[in-house]
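User: These chains co-purify. Model them together.
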Amino acid sequence: MADSQTLLELKHISKSFPGVKALDDVSFDVRSGEVHALLGENGAGKSTLIKIASGVYQPDGGEIVVGGKAVRFGSPRDAQVHGIATIYQELLLYPELSVAENIFMGHAPRTRLGAVNWPEMRRKAEELLASLNIHDLDVTTKVGRLTVGNRQRVEIAKALSMNARVLIMDEPTAAITEADVERLFEIIRLLKGREVGVVYISHRLHEVFDIGDRVTVLRDGRYIATKAVAETTEDELVNMMVGRTLDTMFPKLETQVGEVVLEVRGLSRGRMVRDVSFQLRAGEIVGMAGLVGSGRSEVAQTIFGLTPPQAGTILMRGREIKIKSPRQAMRYGIAYLPEDRGTQGLIRQMELRHNTSLTVLRDLSRAGFINRQKEMQLAQSTIEKLSIRAYSPLQIVGKLSGGNQQKVVVGKWLATRPRVLIVDEPTRGIDVGAKAEIHRLLSELAQQGLAILMISSELPEILGMSDRILVMREGRLVAEFSRAEATQENVGMAMMGNWTGNGNTLKVQADGAAWQA
Amino acid sequence: MASVTQTVSMRRPRSQVSSVLRTIFGSQESVLLVVLVLLIAYVGHSNSGFLATRNMVNVFAGYAYIAIAALGMTMVIVTGNIDISVGSLMVTLSMLSGALVTYKGYPSWLPLDAIIGISWLLPIVIGALIGAIIGFFVTYLRIPAIVVTLGFLSILKGVLIMVSQGERITGMPTGYALAQRRPLQGLDFPIFEDFFRMLTMPVFFMVFLMIVVALWMRYSPTGRAMYAVGGNAEAARLSGISEHRIVMTAFILNGVFVGIAAVLNATQFSVIQVTLPPIELQIITATVVGGVSILGGTGTVVGAVLAAILLNTITKALVFLDISPFWTRAIQGLMILVTVLADLIRRQRQAE
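Assistant: Joint model of the two components:
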């Protein structure tokens, strides 16, 4: 580490937006051959900081130093010229173009006549991918046909094609599978060996310990500390981020598990939902684990009537019901908190009170008009019950922080007084503090007798919150664990399918309640 | 209940002045109102003939049918769709109305009032029907509204020209001239007596329908659902709102308002003819300038009506300012760009 040079330095950066000070005297640097993780809750200023480093925003105060020289980035292009490439959460690729075209977009090799030199471009693209140990990607494939993990690799190759010395990655693992995460880490280690400096942003603490060399924590737009990863602990980092410890993350309450509320038998739809059967009891939280694409959300959407089942039955308190639309599902007391609150949960430009009432407009109406007083009361009580930090029910929800937005979506569903609550990735992309609050809320709701089905890609969340754990793989329910028997290992193994891979077949017991290896 | 109102008023932003300013310049409706008043004052100051009662009545009544059609267009655009066939539809329905009232083949026992009634109402029903067909194409067949209505625009225009063969309709009975009626004639008013007495029917339709639709869109579940669908169709659907039903409703009501506008247009003069001015552009301009975001989800009919009046005022003002009326369309275009730009800036500031 001694001979590694500092590639990029951000010194005493400040940045304000109308009404908020997003960054206040924040310093950050990245050296060649290291992975420097950037941690902080949502709204801590991570995004603003990397947008300044990549030329999207210009700082109000402070200095950017590249290779020892102070520079100014007027645009993302300037930052690229200085060897700084950024891979955003939403990948910026052209789905209709090939892998090679995407990699060399804007700087394709030319023939002497100025036309694109296609053979050269494909050769260079293949070379680049090979240098990243990627041998399973055809450079002529259209990017739109690739998995998210593969698209990410293309983005990395693209960054390297521009001779990036600093690679900024904004939550690169948010949308990819566990297997892809492993490959991503391999590539990152490869890059380290090539003296590239990586800025790594993630909500997942364990990744910081897997891959990071140093870690810097931001809180409320301020610099808190920079530590060598080897010399810190998860607890210390969480403490720095929020001033709380991990124990409060999963406040699971003891509940009285009651009668069966919802039961599905042989539920099937297409390839993603195959012969799924399970029961949900009042007062219990059932965690549903599985890889992305294992059919978890599809099961939820089938129960909720978005994609009606092709086979199988749904029983509500022992009575068979037919659900063909969300409206019908709601009438039977089923609520569904969708995976992506931004595109599926909220009407962002609407006021908070109009969002919380959206599911119950008819109930709030008399003689064809919405009772505004009741609507206001609903919003007010939602704010209080869920401790939403909003200055008034009239606030535009798009302006709330991620965690508070999620609470509004929860509130919207609680307004329907559901008996079954299906939550799909309830804490994705929200900060640690808000996460703990959502967990506490789910616990309390279960204690009040709600049956909760919680889909999550985060194993600690599944293990920490569930009374029972169902595991899905390739559209099927492949395992069930009680709270006591579930561990990171056996749930993880069931998700990956390693058990069947080793020749151990899973066998269904007659009553369908338990699975054995 | 009392405690709720209390908390709310307590949490209002502190500065009253700044909140008043924000109300004025934060909403398109109030900006339009201020611009309208300033414009009338300015033109009146330059040429007092502009303020003559007859002209003022024209300023408010002249585009009433555009404003009424803009009510329907507002709903359609708020749900995230558009209808560019409204101009053709309106002319078609106007001609239909004229043809109905001048048709000679009714049985002799049918009183004239009934014939007039039919010629007023049937175009509205047909308008609703065509709206339903457009809505069906857009929702159930999932064809983008701009494509569907582009098709309807051509179909209606073609049929109209073929059927009418460029002929004009005249000889309507006097009772038919709905738009020429002056409901306040003969009543006494403390101020602006002449103005009120001369106001014609379209103004009353415009104001009445605007109030009803404004309240309905703001306070009815269906109206609210229109904003929800336009704001985020997916989230609305997941909240149990039937997107199809809402978009259908918007297109059907749009047809109804085009029908009403067509009847007012047809009964305005003693001649009905196939002129094909770009009425749809005027209607869409009024709606967009009125602050209805072309992306859906925001905007009110009050803004659209004010914008329609403003557009007409500008047209009339040019004459009094001795500026070529050919500037009208350029100015309208400019207003669209300015409004969309302002909307964009507002959205960006919201996003940050």
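Confidence is low (pLDDT under 50) at residues 499-517 of chain A.
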